[in-house]
Amino acid sequence: MSDNHVGGALNVCTTLAEFPAVLSVAERHSQVVCSVGVHPDYQDIEEPTIDRLLTLADHPKVVAIGETGLDYFRLQEPLEWQRDRFRTHIRAARRCGKPLIIHTRSSSADTIRLMKEEGAAEAGGVMHCFTESLAVAEAAMELGFYISFSGIVTFKNARELQEVARAVPLDRLLIETDSPYLAPVPYRGKTNEPGYVPKVAEKIAELKCISTAQVAEVSTGNFFKLFNILRDEARAKQEVATTP
Ligand SMILES: [Zn+2]
Question: Of 112, 166, 218, 220, which one's alpha carbon is 20 to 30 angstroms from that of 204?
Fold first, then answer.
């Protein structure tokens, strides 16, 4: 990350079992924060309760609730358990005041419906690794959510998504790796890592006809604002941490 001028990262939790390891990375590195949540793709694992999420989220390094959401691509109905799990995360996020990291795949209508029914706008958050239409992005932005683009936006066959990225206003935009998946061009097919995220910024800059530096500045500002991290504090800590 530091070799590629990536100043920070949010390490996303996807199961309760891995949370201690996820938190431990954040505790050991001043430029890393983390989330707590259970991914919608995992069916037969420990189910989170609102109280459990709140207990684990009660830590200064845990800045978000997720990854949560809906995925009708990998799993088939009946998926009431998946929708219940999503509701649990939204309720926990509202209670602790931490934003949501939302995954949606082949399920955008239900995702937006549940976000509205459960008052997700109160917690806010990000639609991560966004691959849906502009209409879905607009519905999420109306609820105050940010739209995050991954390496997919650099792929040649991602024309539609590139148009969405062009249309999403800068003050709603975030970038991410989704590592270890979806490495951006020219690393496509390799194991992704946070240090590759500047390639996503370069592509967004090209699409919006602005400089990569501007995308970096704006997306970094959005990150600190959304996750309620004091930027100067983070910078100061980072300087201390990197001083030999
Ligand atoms: Zn995801």
Answer: 112
* Distance from C-alpha of 116 to C-alpha of 134, rounded to nearest angstrom: 18
> In 13-81, which ranges are E strands?
32-36, 62-71
Q: Quick check: 230 pLDDT over 80?
A: no
Distance 129 CA to ligand 1 centre (A): 6
The pLDDT value recorded for residue 242 is: 45
Cα torsion 149, 128, 187, 9 to 10°: value is 100
pLDDT tens, position by position, 47-76? 999 999 999 999 999 999 999 999 999 999
The answer, as to whether pTM is greater than 0.70, is yes
Question: Which residue shows structure tokens 């990350």?
Answer: 1
Look at residue 231 in the predicted model and tell me its pLDDT: 63
| CA of residue 212 to ligand 1 center, whole Å | 25
CA of 5 to the centre of ligand 1 (A): 24
- 128 Cα: distance to centroid of ligand 1 (angstroms): 6
Q: What pLDDT, on the 0 to 100 scale, is given for residue 233?
A: 58
Nearest one of 91, 161, 157, 107 to 130, comparing CA atoms: 161
* pLDDT score of 238 more than 60: no
User: Which residues are within 8 A (CB) of 232 and not within 5 positions of it... i.e. 6 or more apart?
Assistant: none
- Tell me, in angstroms, the distance from the centre of ligand 1 to residue 14's CA: 9
Find the 67 Cα to ligand 1 centroid distance in Å: 7
Give the Å distance between the CA of 66 and the centre of ligand 1: 9
Ligand 1 centre and the CA of 244: distance in Å? 36
Per-residue model confidence as pLDDT tens digits over 114-127: 999 999 999 999 99
Q: How many CB atoms lie within 10 A of CB 31?
A: 18
